[in-house]
Write a structure and sequence with these properties.
Low-confidence stretches of chain B: 1-20, 307-325, 611-616
Structural class of chain B: alpha/beta
Shape of chain B: globular
CATH topology of one domain in chain B: Rossmann fold
Low-confidence stretches of chain A: none
Mean pLDDT of chain A: 86
Number of helices of chain B: 22
CATH superfamily of one domain in chain B: P-loop containing nucleotide triphosphate hydrolases
CATH class of the largest domain in chain A: Mainly Alpha
Radius of gyration of chain B: 26 Å
Oligomer: heterodimer
CATH architecture of one domain in chain B: 3-Layer(aba) Sandwich
Largest sheet of chain B: 6 strands, mixed
Structural class of chain A: mainly alpha
């Protein structure tokens, strides 16, 4: 088991390295290959009506005249030990981990990311709890009552959940619960958990439920399919033949087997969401990572976009690593092969 | 309410069976089970009656679809909550299955009657340790027992079924055991609560012969030592022959014959039982005898069918083709010192260790002959056949086909060879693509070899379909419409469409019922005559191999331990391993079966130390 963990850790680090290369290539190599020269590239980092001096300064700061390998080296170095953006006349410090510097707003990206992470994390964790509990229990119930009115109704609602976009369900829920009935606050407000847990939860209920609705629907369908498969397995018959009550047969034997694939997909979904639930954050005007990214894209602020992308990748890789380890714990057969 | 009333009826139940010792522990009368389908209700079991005395052993024999498994599930009350409709009366250890409450049924399952299922690979939960699963089986019926007590009990139970080092192995997961060991674990699970009846549904079907013999011996021992009743369900009469007192032959949901096992096997009354008995492959019948029989049957058929059978190509063929190894003839296939290495990964950075699946194997194969390769799982017999077809490239050694060295031919130049060497695989269910019609499946090989005329392909496929005993109208059907035996016929047609010279049959009948097995073997025999084929016949079943092979090679751990003329191997085995295999082969005569059992016990006594070292 220890061997397995160490191997997965190594694989995780390697994967992150590859991700950083790909992200870097997208932002620095591909524009070059497409014919943009160093001046053109530098101009993108400044904003509207760049002056030749500003372009020269950015070019110098980002080493855009140097070979691509040197640029990548600087990029990685910045992530690990921090870097300095030297224009020849002045120096901008970017301490480790340096996820970039926005020349448009004059801020380092990392502190901004850290600032916004609690919002996104609050949203993701709360929604995940709701969708896991709701999705899995509806899926299990549906599978056990297969073909009944309950099953049909649940799967119909689930189909609706999968097909309705968040900006629709989100806006409808805002209109009904916030503007019309006034039960929950309108979007745009976020109270940190440490300040006032009740206000924190109260403000997040609508985004949580909206986001969870979509995912719960997907997870309910997945769980139902997994349960139906598992209930036909021979070991379920063995469990019944031992004289176990149905509750143990389902709760212990069937569920463990049916939930194993759910873990995999949950890790991916959750990791991705920590990088920003773009639609939900935009719909409810939550100042999270997703909104930060959207604003950056709208303002053509490339360093921020790059930073958020890299940050998200880290979360997905970490989530995947945790899933792999969890998987080995849940399913002993994995330990042998991998 | 019914529950309480019922228990009052039977007075105080004692643990060991019914109210008195003479009452049967299992009593089934007029059992009828139907299932709803799209075409109306199907009757799976129709009017079945039987009793099992305390300590008695009953065998239920029938082909797939005979209703034997449906019956055994009914004894456990496992049709509850399904769409099956069960009528008639079943009493198990004093519990009326139809009338008892769910709670009463649960208390009975595993406690009064325990079931050992067919497929040990899928019948254990892969994600829990076997200890967890055994302990659970105990504590559900003994809620006052502590985990430590249950654990102690589980270790005892594992020890009793012959799992080495049970105290350590109890923490292992099912995938860490071999098939035979898993079957033992399932039996150990059944024994956890000292049941009155042990119900074993095809407990040895997926296993090797020697393991099968061990499991059957174990069941027999347990029955004697613990005074349990045994119900043994199987498709193979030879499996139940040595283990039960009474046998029940089922067909299409009805009992066709029933009686003392010696009587039924020696003088069967019903023609179906006779047919089943005839179909059982016999280790004691030689290849020559069987071929003579097959040819005689065939000649008779032809005689009755059409008298115009003037020119029969079969008549000219000698019974046994030229003496193997004769100098004048060049062998069709020559295998010299072939080895196949696999790397087994493990350790921190995936360090690989070498494992030789086939180790220094040599043999010659002459045109028109059949070489049987017998061995148990892991002996390397399948690897060897894949090497000969060049689906695997041998690590070392030389393979010569018709005088050409094919050992290292690149994939591109193998195509002509693929026409000459064909393979028939074990599982007819998974080796046919379910989304392709059988006509296209069979014709695909022609297309690969460059035939473009669709009409011609169709004609040839249809011709061949008829030859293997199917209809030309089956061309456009999909595999799911066929039974196991029919699918294997399709697989045979697929292999023969290119008119190969050498056909490698890898366990072609091991997934089939005995009677179907017999038909497929006969077909293979006939085709060998008609198409002038050379076979390599790979199987774990000694009896089957004897009937089709001119020469037999016995494989163990990647090596050929013994090879000679078929009758020689069976009548005068030279190697210990061959003797073990022969002693393990099931036989039809109950007296002989018991004698074999005693032999095995002796053999085991002498090799126990060796085995313990091997399985640790």
């Amino acid at each position: 088991m220890i061997t397995y963990i160490i191997r997965r850790l190594f694989a995780g680090v390697g994967l992150l390295l590859i991700v950083s290369m790909v992200v870097f290539a997208i932002f620095f190599l591909i524009p070059r290959l497409a014919g943009t020269d160093a001046d053109g590239l530098a101009a993108r980092y400044i904003g509207k009506s760049p002056t030749p001096e500003a372009i020269a300064a950015v070019k110098e700061r980002l080493n855009l005249d140097e070979p691509i390998t040197v640029q990548y080296g600087e990029f990685v170095k910045g992530l690990v030990v921090g870097t300095e953006y030297d224009s020849g006349t002045d120096v901008i410090e970017c301490s480790a981990p340096c996820f970039g510097y926005s020349f448009k707003t004059g801020t380092e990206v990392w502190p901004q990311l850290i600032d916004r992470l609690p919002v996104t994390a609050s949203l993701a964790v709360g929604a995940a709890v709701i969708w896991l509990v709701a999705g899995v229990s509806i899926g299990v119930l549906s599978a056990l009552r297969r073909g009944t009115a309950l099953d049909r109704a649940a799967m119909m609602v689930a189909l609706a959940g999968v097909s309705l976009p968040i900006f629709f369900t989100g806006l409808v829920s805002l209109a009904v619960f916030s503007y019309y009935w006034g039960i929950f606050p309108p979007g745009g407000s976020f109270t940190p958990f440490t300040e006032n847990p009740i206000a924190w939860a109260h403000g997040l209920v609508l985004p949580w439920v909206t986001l969870a609705f979509l995912y719960a629907a997907m997870y309910a369908r997945l769980t139902r399919a997994g349960m139906l498969d598992t209930m036909g397995e021979d070991f379920i018959r063995t469990a019944r033949a031992k004289g176990l009550p149905e509750r143990t047969v389902i709760g212990k034997h069937a569920l463990r087997s049916a939930l194993t694939p759910i873990i995999t997909i949950f890790g991916l979904d959750f990791g991705l969401m920590l990088g920003g639930a773009v639609l939900t954050e935009s719909t409810f005007s939550l100042p999270g990572l997703g909104k930060y990214a959207v604003d950056a894209i709208r303002g053509n602020d490339l360093p921020v976009v790059l930073g958020v992308t890299m940050f998200t990748a880290v979360f997905v890789v970490i989530a995947n690593l945790i899933v792999d380890l969890l998987y080995a714990w849940v399913d002993p057969r994995v330990r042998v092969g991998a | 309410m019914t529950d309480i009333a019922h228990e009052a009826d039977h007075g105080i139940r004692d643990k060991k069976g019914g109210t008195t010792m003479t009452d049967p522990v299992v009593s089934v009368s007029d059992l009828r089970i139907t299932f709803p389908t799209l075409e109306g209700r199907i009757t799976a079991v129709d009017g079945v009656c039987f009793d099992v005395e305390p300590g008695g052993a009953l065998g239920i024999v029938g082909e797939s679809g005979s209703g034997k498994s449906v019956t055994s599930l009914a004894l456990m009350g496992l049709h509850r909550g399904t769409k099956a409709e069960v009528t008639g009366k079943i009493t198990v250890a004093g519990t009326d299955i139809a009338a008892a409450s769910d709670r009463r049924i649960r208390a009975m399952r595993g406690n009064d009657i325990a079931m050992v299922f067919q497929d040990p690979m899928s019948s254990l939960h892969p994600q829990y340790t076997i200890g967890n699963q055994l302990i659970e089986a105990y504590r559900i019926h003994r809620p006052k027992a502590s985990v430590a007590e249950a654990r102690k009990r589980a270790v005892e139970s594992l020890d009793r079924v012959g799992i080495p080092q049970p105290a350590r192995r109890i923490n292992s997961y099912p995938h860490e055991f071999s098939g035979g060991m898993r079957q033992r674990v399932l039996i150990a699970m059944g024994l956890m609560c000292d049941p009155t009846v042990l119900l074993a549904d095809e407990p040895t079907t997926a296993l090797d012969v020697t393991v099968q013999a061990q499991i059957l011996d174990l069941l027999d021992d347990l029955r004697r030592d613990l005074g349990m009743s045994l119900i043994l369900v199987s498709h193979d009469l030879a499996v139940v022959a040595g283990s039960v007192d009474e046998v029940l032959v089922m067909r299409k949901g009805e009992i066709v014959e029933r009686g003392d096992v010696r009587r039924v096997l020696s003088t069967p009354e019903h023609p179906y039982t006779q047919a089943l008995l005839d179909a059982v492959p016999r280790v004691d019948v030689s290849r020559a005898q069987r071929r003579a029989q097959v040819r005689a049957d065939r000649a008779q058929e032809r005689h009755q069918g059409a008298s115009s059978a003037a020119a029969q190509p079969t008549a000219a063929r000698p019974v046994a083709p030229g003496p193997p190894g004769s100098a004048e003839e060049e062998p069709l296939l020559k295998v010299e010192n072939a080895r196949m290495r696999f790397k087994v990964r493990g350790g921190l950075f995936g360090r690989a260790t070498d494992f030789y699946a086939v180790d220094d194997v040599s043999f010659d194969l002459y045109k028109g002959e059949t070489l049987g390769i017998v061995g148990e799982s892991g002996s390397g017999k399948s690897t060897l056949s894949r090497m000969v077809t060049r689906l695997l490239r041998p690590t070392e050694g030389r393979i010569t086909f018709e005088g050409h060295d094919i050992t290292r031919l690149p994939e591109r130049r193998l195509r002509p060879l693929r026409r000459d060497i064909q393979m028939i695989f074990q599982n007819p269910y998974s080796s046919l693509n379910p989304r392709v019609t059988i006509g296209d499946s069979i014709g695909a090989a022609l297309r690969v070899q460059g035939e473009t005329d669709t009409k011609k392909i169709r004609m040839r496929v249809q011709e061949l379909l008829e030859r293997v005993g199917l209809e030309s109208a089956h061309y456009n059907r999909f595999p799911h419409a066929f039974s196991g035996g029919q699918r294997q016929r399709i697989a045979i047609a697929r292999a023969l469409i290119l008119r190969p010279k050498l056909v490698i049959c890898d366990e072609p009948v091991s997934a089939l019922d005995v009677s179907t097995q017999d038909q497929v073997l006969r077909l293979l025999d006939e085709l060998q005559d008609d198409f002038d084929l050379t076979y390599i016949f790979v199987a774990h079943d000694l009896a089957v191999v004897r009937q089709v092979s001119d020469r037999v090679a016995v494989m163990s751990k990647g090596r050929i331990v013994e090879m000679s003329h078929g009758d020689e191997v069976y009548e005068n085995p030279q190697h210990d391993y061959t003797r073990q295999l022969l002693a393990a082969a099931p036989v039809l005569d109950p007296e002989e079966a018991r004698a074999h059992r005693a032999d095995r016990a002796r053999l085991r006594g002498s090799t126990d130390a060796h085995e313990a070292a091997g399985s640790a």
